[in-house]
Amino acid sequence: MDNNFKMVAKTLFGFEDILAKELTQLGAMQVEKGVRNVSFVGDKGFMYKANIGLRTAIKILKPIKSFRVTREIDLYKNVKDIKWEDYLKPTGSLAVDATVNHSIFTHSQYTALKTKDAIVDRFREQNGQRPNVDLRFPDLKINVHIDRQRCTISLDTSGESLHRRGYKTATNIAPINEVLAAGLIMMSGWDGQSDFMDPMCGSGTILAEAAMIACNIPPNLMRKEFAFERWEDWDVDLFETIEESLLKKARDFHHKIIGYDKSPSAVRKAKENIKNAHLEEFIHIQHEDFFKTQKAGDAKLHMVFNPPYGERLENLNIEEFYGNIGTTLKHGYPNTDAWLVTSNLEALKYIGLRPSRKIKVFNAKLESRFVKYEMYEGSRKAKKRD
Question: How far, in Å, are 165, 180, 213, 305 from residue 269 at the CA level?
Answer without folding.
Answer: 16, 19, 21, 17
